[in-house]
Amino acid sequence: MSDQHRITLAEAWDRYLTDPSSTRTHKTTLAYETVRNVVVSVLGAETLVADVGRQDCRRVLDTLRHLPPNYGKKWPDMTPPAIAAMAVRDGLRPMAAANCNGYMTRWAGMMNWLVKEELADRNPCVGLRVADPVPVRDKRRPFSTGQLQRIFTGPPFEALRNPTTTRFNPPCPSRFYVPLIALFSGLRQNEICQQTTDDIADIDGVPCFIVKSDPTCGKRVKTASSERVVPVHPALVRAGLLDHHRKRCSSGGSRMWPDLALDRFGYASAYFSKWFARYLAQAGAKLDRTSFHSFRHCFRDSLRAGGVERELAFALGGWSGSRSGTVSIGDLYGSGYPIAALQDAISRVSYDVDALRPLLGESSSSTPDSCATSD
Asked: Which domain of life is it from (predicted)?
């Protein structure tokens, strides 16, 4: 065995996490350190990488598939193997298969890096994962019409029930606009919550959302294809979003939603996400496999119903077009869609939801009082 292959697991993780050629957010780094803790606690910090075999990797996987959700917070003084053994003994519900596989994907990524750096000859954990009983298509579902009706008749949306003759004036702009932007524009929760005033601009005379990454102010996007331009839907214009934008610009503040506090990782969406989960339950709209992300599924279904072609829909939603996230050669040709085409496509997004009719230029029938809930 050459000296370069006498690296221990602990040393391997240290080198990987401090590699200057990689850029990771603080949150991502912590996720990798969590995986490191599991691997090292199962196999031993001083174990040589060269001695790690396929069955060792299966031991790690077996530990992961028995760990309960949030095990580190619930049992901070116990090791992962001890927690897994306790969970098996007491019949505790394990973490979701997708989370377990996420751990294995991160570990496999570290091992691939070792191979590229010629610090290991092979990756013994490649391809190891647990079977996920939930198909990808069913992991998140769109909100039903009934759920949307309950969501948009709750207290944050009082302005929809009682709009002034000239404009909407919601008392809590973020709780009012963030869900509406997601529903009518397909933007992800964090893409909306992190918006600054320069993320809305006129392009060819059309008001548009500019979704982009900006490390200087902590703005992040999920993938390269997430950076995009999305025209502001006419419903959002009717809802007074552009009025709110002008107020924020004139105030001198840079953030669109200054009431959203940042979490320790700098995300503006974290606390909003917790509030919205509570709100779904309070509104009577909480169902299995639906969450804020369901707005994006609603948006995609509405684009289909409106006859928007797939490639144009993907451009609006920031979808890559492949599960691996890779870009096809065809995607590299041309300069993209003109704003007029994007605007036409976004205008086809519509919902047969009574509570939303004031935003769609339609008269609203009476909304049942039973849908209203207290915050």
From this structure: Bacteria
Q: Given this model, what pLDDT does residue 163 score?
A: 63
> Dihedral angle at the C-alpha atoms of 286, 288, 293, 298, nearest 10 degrees?
-90
Fill in the DSSP letter of residue 341.
H
Distance CA 150, CA 294 (A): 14
pLDDT value for 269: 92
| Region 3-133: CATH code | 1.10.150.130
Strand 200-203 vs strand 228-231: parallel, antiparallel, or unpaired? unpaired
pLDDT for position 5:
61
Q: Mean pLDDT across the chain, nearest whole number?
A: 87
User: Is this model's pTM higher than 0.90 or not?
Assistant: no
Residue 35, burial from CB neighbour count under 10 angstroms (0-12, 13-18, 19+): buried
Cα–Cα distance for residue pair 310/303, rounded to 1 Å: 9
Q: Determine the pLDDT at residue 329.
A: 43
CB 270 within 8 A of CB 119: no
Is domain 145-371 given the CATH code 1.10.443 in the classification?
yes
Cross-strand pairs, 206: 203
The pLDDT of residue 4: 53
For the chain, residues with pLDDT lower than 50 are 1, 3, 165-166, 322-334, 364-375
CA 178/CA 187 separation, integer angstroms: 9
Element (H, E) at 231: strand 228-231
- For position 25, what pLDDT does the model report? 79
Could you please report the per-residue DSSP string of 176-220?
A: HHHHHHHHHH---HHHHHT-BGGGEEEETTEEEEEE--BGGGTB-
Taking alpha carbons only, the member of 228, 204, 225 closest to residue 340 is 204
Phi, psi at residue 219, to the nearest 5°? -85, 135
pLDDT at 135: 63
